[in-house]
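Exercise 7.
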Amino acid sequence: MSETFTKSMARNIFYGGSTFFFLLLLALTFDTESSLHESDNRENLTEQVAHGKRLWEENNCIGCHTLLGEGAYFAPELGNVYKRFGNSKEAIMGFIKSRPVDGIPGRRSMPQFNFTDEELNAVAEFLKYASEINTQNWPPNIQG
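Solution. The predicted structure, written as tokens, is:
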């Protein structure tokens, strides 16, 4: 075999490598798309869930909490809060409702948002919906 590296050899390596990595990209894209369709939760998306999401955004809950790994790390992850509270929307609603008006002196605490019962139920529905998304075991522990 010759010790020289010719232009045709370089061209063949380039085209062969480009073809290989393009096919790899297609295969990984197909795999990702198929796994996303298995894990979506669209059948449970209701107007009440959407209202809870709007309340979540309007009150900047993500400014303190994470949801499915996104957000601030000041307060606990809420992607699995429905499971942590024993699969009970009432427990979530009771927790939010029980927050003191002025917070707890000397420590960080969640503010009192003074939600109506309808708004509390919408937020709880949204958190229930978020907990039912197949996150492939994220967060890795129940505490979030």
